[in-house]
Amino acid sequence: MNKEPVSRELFDEVMVPNYAPGNIIPVRGEGSRVWDQEGREFLDLQGGIAVTSLGHAHPGLLSALQEQSEKVWHLSNVMTNEPALRLAKTLCDHTFAERVFFANSGAEANEAAFKLARRYAWDNFGPEKHEIISFKNAFHGRTLFTVSVGGQQKYLEGFEPAPGGIHHADFNDLDSVKALISKKKTCAVVIEPIQGESGVMPADPEFLKGLRKLCDENNALLIFDEVQTGVGRTGHLYAYEMYGVIPDILTSAKGLGGGFPVAAMLTTAKVGASLAVGTHGSTYGGNALACAVAQKVIDTVSQPEILKGVNERSEKLRQGMMAIGERYGVFSEVRGAGLLLGCVLTEQWQGRAKEFLTAGLEEGVMVLMAGANVVRLAPSLIIPETDIEEALQRFEAAVKKLAQ
C-alpha cells in the first residue's frame, strides 16, 4: 500500500485538471467540523455541496455501514437485495411516488428521468413527442444529455453536437414556457424548485403551479430535479411539499446518502411502467451498502423534529449573514429555503464570491459559491447552534479583513 506523503501538488501530477481544489486537504471530520493534515480545524458550512446531510462521522450512518458491510456489499440487478427494497418502500411511503429507480449520482438520476420521459411519450403518444423544456441557468448534471438539458452553454462548449429536442425557457416566466410548449411535441418540463448552481434562486409558487397546469393541458410530464433541494434541505423532506405542487418524476441524490454515493428517481406506477425490462439499467444502482446508509439518512431526516430544526437553524444562519452583510455592505439579500441559502453580493462586490470562500478558509470556516455573485451555504441539517454562532463569528472576521 502506497503510504507516501500526500500534498496538493500530487493532484497536478496525477489528476486531470478539470478541478481547481484549494490547498487544504481535510483528513478527518466529526459533526460539522473537519481537520486538515496540519490539524487545523474548520467549521463546515459547505456540507460537501449539500451532501453531508447529517454531518461527518454520524454514529447512525457509521453503524448502518458497518452492519451492512458484514453481510452483502454488491449483488448487481440480476438479483435484488433487502436494503434496496426497504429504501424504495420508505421513499414511496414518504412521497407521492409509487416506483423507484436507483442510481449513483444526481446526473444519473436525471439521465434516467429524461430517458423515462421520452420513453413514456413514445409509448403513449408516438416518437414525435420527444421535446424537453428546461430553463436558462439550470444545472442538471455533467453527462452529455443532462448538460444539454441544463441551461448553461459554458458546460457544453467543446462537447457538441448536443442531443436535440431541448428548449430553454426563462425561469419564473410562465409566458416563456407557453411560447415553447406543444401538445404534439413536448414530452416533459424539467425544473429545479430552487436553482442551485446559478445562485440559489427559488421558483415562485404561482410559477410552479402554472407549470403543473401547462403540463397537464399538454400531456407533458413535470420533472422536479431535487438533487440539491431534497432530503430535508429546505425543511421539508422534498421541496415539492413546500410548494404544494406534485411532479410526475422527482430526482434525488446529494443528501440522500449523507456522503455515500447514491441517487434515486421517483415516479408513479403509470409513468414508471415505461421503463420495462431492458430499457435502462445501472451496475451499481441499488447497491446494498449505499441503500443501507440512505435508509438511515431518510429514517433520521424524515423525523418532524429534525425538519423543524432545519427551519430554526435556517433562521439563525440567515439573520446572522444578513447582519454581517449590513455591517460591511457586502450582501443585498439572503435567499433560499431551509439550509440551502444564497447570500447575494452587493453591486460593489459583484464577481468576487471566490474571495469570500478563500477568506473564510483563512479564518477556519468553509463556505461555497453559487456563481460569481453568490456565497452559498449548505451545512449539515443537524449542525449544532453553537457551531452556527462560531461559524458566523469566523466568517465575520473574514469579511472584516476583506472589507479593509
TrEMBL record:
N(2)-acetyl-L-ornithine binds at residues 142, 282. May also have succinyldiaminopimelate aminotransferase activity, thus carrying out the corresponding step in lysine biosynthesis. InterPro entries: Ac/SucOrn_transaminase_bac (IPR017652), AcOrn/SuccOrn_fam (IPR004636), Aminotrans_3 (IPR005814), Aminotrans_3_PPA_site (IPR049704), Class-III_PLP-dep_AT (IPR050103), PyrdxlP-dep_Trfase (IPR015424), PyrdxlP-dep_Trfase_major (IPR015421), PyrdxlP-dep_Trfase_small (IPR015422). GO terms for cellular component: cytoplasm. It catalyses: N(2)-acetyl-L-ornithine + 2-oxoglutarate = N-acetyl-L-glutamate 5-semialdehyde + L-glutamate. The gene is aruC. It is an enzyme of class 2 (transferase). Its cofactor is pyridoxal 5'-phosphate. The modification N6-(pyridoxal phosphate)lysine is found at residue 254. CDD domains: OAT_like. It is found in: Cytoplasm. Transmembrane segments: none annotated. This is Acetylornithine aminotransferase. Pfam families: Aminotran_3. Pyridoxal 5'-phosphate binds at residues 106-107, 139, 225-228, 283. Belongs to the class-III pyridoxal-phosphate-dependent aminotransferase family. ArgD subfamily. Pathway: Amino-acid biosynthesis; L-arginine biosynthesis; N(2)-acetyl-L-ornithine from L-glutamate: step 4/4. Its EC number is 2.6.1.11. One of its GO terms (molecular function) is pyridoxal phosphate binding. GO terms for biological process: L-arginine biosynthetic process. Binds 1 pyridoxal phosphate per subunit. It comes from Marinobacter litoralis. Keywords: Amino-acid biosynthesis, Aminotransferase, Arginine biosynthesis, Cytoplasm, Pyridoxal phosphate, Transferase. Homodimer.
